Amino acid sequence: MPRKSYADDIRRRVVQDLEEGAPVGEVIRKYGIAEATVYRWRNRFSRAALSRDPENLRLEEENRRLRDLYTEAALENQALRERLQRR
After folding, report:
1. Can you tell me whether residue 27 is helix, strand or coil?
2. Residue 26 lies in a domain
3. 3 occurs within a structural domain
4. What is residue 1's predicted lDDT score, i.e. its pLDDT?
5. Domain extent at residue 35
6. Spans of the chain, pLDDT less than 70
7. For the chain, percent helix, then strand, then coil, each to nearest 5?
8. 24-31 and 8-19 helices cross at what angle (nearest 10)?
9. Does a structural domain hold residue 30?
10. Is residue 1 in a domain?
């Protein structure tokens, strides 16, 4: 029997319910999904699992670096504007 396919929004809602403290049994009944599927989604899509993803870590580091560059450029821009106003 082929595996049943679920939409991404259903997966996100299931994982969100679990992260908010809903018992697995309740989530299984609410969505009509197999227990193994719920655990697999939790392991794959939870915030903790995503935070360990190497690509996600790389993007977070790049985001931090770009924010720092933006802040530095904004401060430099402000200083230059103040100098121009004094002239």
Report:
1. helix
2. yes
3. no
4. 60
5. 8-86
6. 1-3, 48-50, 52
7. 80, 0, 20
8. 150
9. yes
10. no
